[in-house]
Amino acid sequence: MELLIPSEQATTGHPVPDASLKEISFFHASEGKPLATPWQVAMTRADYMTQFELPSGMVLDCACGSGIQLAAYASRLKRPALGIELDHDRAIATCLNLNTIARRFSTYGQGWHRRSIVVAGDGTASEEISLIAGFENNSIALLMLDPARPRNSRTHDLDEMQPNLSSVFSAWKPYLASTEKGPCIVLDLSPRLTQELRDGVEAIVESFWPGIDKTWIWMSRGGGRVDRLELWLGGVATPDVTKRFVRLSRTFAGDDAVIEQQEITQSNRHGLQSARRNEWVTILDAALVESGLADAWLHEQLSNVSDIRWAESSPRRPRIHHNGPLKDESHPFVVASGRVVDVLDVALDEANIDAIVAVALENDISAMTIRCGVDAGLQPRLQGSIDRQMRNRQGRRKAFLTRHTTSNHLLLCAQYPQNSDT
């Protein structure tokens, strides 16, 4: 166990530009870079945290890694940081990154930074850490935990988290300051957790704080993938909001797209009818569907959600058919949306690609994107042929090509408007 003071640490190693903001660079150690939180994600969380009234005290991250998220919270909330990291080299990196952020916000050696400390040691050794760090019960305003878990694994059990939830809660419960809604806790968990495992997390939480408020937060940076999954508890849970999905802006300072579930919204999912002209087809962000908030969002976007027919032939391209346009076809949750202008009873292959392009040209299409499952080796050849044949055409509309799930017909959908998200 070793107590480290950030301002006393000599700079070692070379910082690496952040993936989301190249003008800022962070230190990493012991292969920590692939695990590090991008600064855009860290600051999005920290900005959101400012809406809550936290009790007085420190921001504790008991498995802080490179300390990027800890630095974002501490600097934004103006609270001293207490970072704990088992790996000594990563603990040093946390010190250096706290220094980096303090300099960025011109608070080096002042306020939160001056009172921040890092401990190289076991994140569950609360009594020993409190002695060497010199703090007492009720000194922690916010507890963060991003436990290590198996890498390159599609699923994992809760007992594979290190440190595990129960040991962390047992160790730090006496030191947590409280609000009217209980302590303030943020759990940064694997986005691969199944519903069963999420229920298991809630059961562990309930065993320590029965009835505590909970808000699950899914976060995506695009590409149809959930990048982050968190559980905000107690004083930082949003009242009456059980789920939130955040689609981060493409630019660092841009507006994020957010949907929340304030009550359970579940629509009956009707199957597809036969392929039809003039119906609308929308391909949704797969991460939105995975979060379980697609129905809530569709209630906002469509005047009659009972008209929706689901075609979930591919988890990567969840698709709905509906009778009218979305209120916002260019919404970040939308990969593509358009009206069916033609139905083709042909296979999507090299023998038929010229005929498919001819139909597109007849429908005033200037560009067309394949948005259905195609063999990985064939897809670039087909898309390349489409692009070459349609280059410099004078059509006025862009389109996408998808496949009807039940009939296998191809659907040529004119986009209104084009959505640039892929």
Give the rounded overall mean pLDDT: 90
**Beta-strand share of residues:** 15-25%
Strand order of the largest sheet: 1-6-5-4-7-8-10-9-11-12
In percent, how helical is the residue content?
25-40%
Q: At the first level of CATH, what is the class of the largest domain?
A: Alpha Beta
SS class: alpha/beta
Low-confidence stretches: none
Shape: elongated
Number of helices, where a helix is a run of at least 4 consecutive DSSP H or I residues: 11
Q: What is the name of the CATH superfamily of the largest domain? A: Vaccinia Virus protein VP39
What is the ordering of alpha helices and beta strands? EEEHEHEHHEHEHEHEEEEEHHEEEHEHEE
The tally of beta strands, per DSSP, is 19
Q: Could you give a short description of this structure?
A:
The chain is α/β, with parallel strands linked by helices and 422 residues long.
Walk me through the structure.
The chain has 422 residues and is α/β, with parallel strands linked by helices. The chain has two domains: 2-261, 3-Layer(aba) Sandwich (Rossmann fold), CATH 3.40.50; 280-415. The chain has eleven helices and 19 strands. The chain has helices at 39-49, 68-77, 88-104, 111-114, 126-133, 165-172, 195-208, 286-291, 294-301, 353-362, 379-390, and strands spanning 2-4, 16-17, 25-26, 58-61, 81-85, 117-120, 140-145, 184-189, 214-220, 228-234, 243-247, 257-261, 280-284, 309-311, 319-322, 334-344, 365-370, 397-403, 410-415. The chain has a ten-stranded mixed β-sheet, with helices on both faces. A seven-stranded mixed β-sheet has the order 14-15-13-16-19-18-17. Strand 7 (140-145), helix 6 (165-172) and strand 8 form a beta-alpha-beta unit. It is elongated and about 75 Å long.
